[in-house]
Amino acid sequence: RNRCHASILMGLLSQGTDASLVVLGSVLALIGRFQLGDEAAAYDLLEYVPKVVGKLEISQSISELAGMLLRSLTLSKENLSQLKHSRRINEYEGYTKEEYELLS
Known about the structure:
mainly alpha
């Protein structure tokens, strides 16, 4: 269920909808519900947060929070291994060169 919600929110974020503030709130709420195995979806959603915040006139602390959460997903070799595994089992593909090198 979390992956379904993540896919919907990812689509809305990438479209730059007029409801970006609501979508952003939904992203942060969803991330609070993620479980083991949802790391790839969290990583992908969190990457969009600074882009959305930059378009809205709201506090940059939300971008800082997203950055902190992204760093926690890649903090150690174990975290990176889990993120890579999550991508593989959830069929999240389309890595950028930098992401692939980070996860390898």
